[in-house]
Specification:
Shape: elongated
Number of domains: 2
CATH architecture of the largest domain: Roll
Number of strands: 11
CATH class of the largest domain: Mainly Beta
Number of helices: 2
Helix content: under 10%
Strand order of the largest sheet: 9-8-7-6-11-10
């Protein structure tokens, strides 16, 4: 519900802005009335439009183990011995816990790893890196 207090929502490219006039919870999601969107047809034209809040309008995190996804995107991903795996390109939540996507620098096939303390024991926002402990594979 706090999203209504952060100011206007923006389209991904920042060209469209929307103010929330009313917001109410429903089963597993929220229903919002946006300023200037007065009928069903206008609302349907916004279907699947991703809306964002600029990072600088979000409140600070409460502790060192809490992160905004935006703070993690772009961090270097390294093994415990310092070898570079790539960069964090996305965070996903498919319902069974967050997954972090690591894309090798220079391209290549990305990998998804669980975003938990065992797999990602170090998140160093100030240092611009995370440490990934890859699972051991048996051959």
């Amino acid at each position: 519900m706090a999203v209504a207090s952060y100011g206007a929502l923006e389209s991904e490219d920042g060209t469209q802005k929307f103010e929330i006039e009313a917001l109410r919870p429903s089963k597993g999601f929220f229903i919002a009335q946006l300023k200037g969107v007065k009928d069903r047809n206008a609302a349907e034209r916004l279907t699947n439009l991703r809306l964002y809040i600029p990072r600088d309008r979000l409140p600070p995190t409460e502790d060192a183990d809490t992160f905004y996804h935006a703070d993690l995107i772009g961090l270097a991903a390294q093994t415990p011995d310092g070898a570079t795996l790539g960069s964090v390109t996305a965070i996903y939540d498919f319902g069974a816990g967050d997954l972090i996507e690591i894309t090798p620098d220079g391209g290549g096939e990305s990998m998804l790893v669980p975003f938990n303390e065992a797999t990602v024991p170090i998140v160093d926002i100030a240092g611009g890196r995370i440490v990934i402990v890859l699972p051991e594979t048996s051959e």
